[in-house]
Give the backbone structure.
Amino acid sequence: MEYELHGSINAVVGLAPVVIATDTTTVTAIIDTKGFESLEWVISSGVLTDGAYSVVIEDGDAANLSDAAAVPVADRLGALPAFIATEDGVTKRVGTVSKKRYQRLSIVSTTTTAGGLFSVVAIQGHAHSRPVA
């Protein structure tokens, strides 16, 4: 391979592996995008016994996201992913080019009794300063 990606991105755990076993909204850590121009959310499922799971991404300029609003479609790269109970061991992604400093992703679960396992990683891209430590 000719090109190097390692020094240009940063990976942050948004949500450590967690079982979602009720109808709820499971929220990731707030990701500070300072020093980066893009963010790619990578959502992975483990075993999904039942339920339906949709994704919402919010952004804002307040560190606690008290000003959170859904990321506009124009600032999203790809459709918001969704998961159903037959999608064990699946990874999906969606990117953003938001001009807001902070972001978080939420997994909204419905028709859930036993649930399923999820994890989320935020990949920060287009770093202002390279290589990224």
The chain has one domain: 19-127.
